[in-house]
Fold this protein.
Amino acid sequence: MQAMGFESFERILGGVCAPEGFLASGVSCGIKGDGLLDLALVYTEKPAAAAGVYTTNSMKAAPVVFSSERLSRGTARAVVVNSGIANSMTGRRGARDAEVMAAAVESALDIPEGQALVASTGRIGEYLPMEKIEKGIQAAVQDLNPGGNTDAVKAIMTTDTYPKELAAEMEIGGRVVRLGAMAKGSGMIHPNMATMIAVITTDIDIDVETMRNWLGRAVEWSFNRISVDGDMSTNDTVFMMANGAAFPGGYEMSGEEADLFFETLCWLTGSLAVALVKDGEGATKLVRVVVNGAIDDAEAVLVARAIGNSNLVKCAFHGGLPAWGRIAAAVGSSGVPVSTENFSVVIGECEVFSHGVILEFDAAEVESAVNRDEVEITVDIGRGGGSAYFMTTDLSPEYVEFNAQDKS
């Protein structure tokens, strides 16, 4: 946690409701059954600039297509998210259902057409029970409140084992400015992004182009650097809304203030990304992969992803095996031309291979490093000054058992 003051931020409670002027709710509309919360609504009382980042999967779900088109205008007042059914691979009916969800929110909130965004998460290849969802939207609007973030974050969960939300505040322009966020994701996690939905709110005034730039960069350094199983979702969505409520008369941030805000945004997305990986289905370990010595950062990302997505590497870490040879093989499969003469591997604090030579190392120390709850791998490919990191998990029998069942 940072100390409060200029060029610093402090973690606070409140999630998406922490920034001024934001309300939220989470209700049960019957998608999941058993009274489980399955529909969330986030609403800003003031008009807001808005931006989004979406999956690169070509089989995009209906709400992704709908919301990305709608956000081209750069404004929004509300986000509605249902969980349990993804509204993916549902054709024209799915597209119409996404449109109806947005219209129902706009009507219930009495906001202009085009100001509601939609996201869905859950099982692919099922139609939404629209009668239940429309009733749920009515209930969610009635339940909107400044403490509704707790129910909202629970309502977007699918296979998550715990809710994921964060908020922070900082001083900008002599006033307290806040950022809040909620996210869900557990399995089918792989760039870009990770069977995930995230909503970010802030009460500062940001122009749309700046927000799009900052959000895209923050997502690239966080949600796009994680993997659990190498499967890319059809529904990944990150929304951000900025309503300017902290400065009713408007305010233009200085360069230092903009840097502080952006760093806080990156802390928020980065921390949530770690939480998503740690909650990976069947995961018992968080694995951090660091790659140095690439021609540039983009090349380093390719190598890091190859290691992080290797099932052999992931299985080795689940079994507590210091299988650095599997790491080397994954690097060699990345498409980056790496020579063994310029290659080194460090597991934990132990260097095991360097420039074509197998080093003498304490096997017990390496095995101890591999058996930690959080494992770090560092490789240097000796090609330049580029570097990158990537976060993944081990691969356990529980993951296979879990995904062999019909779950949302």
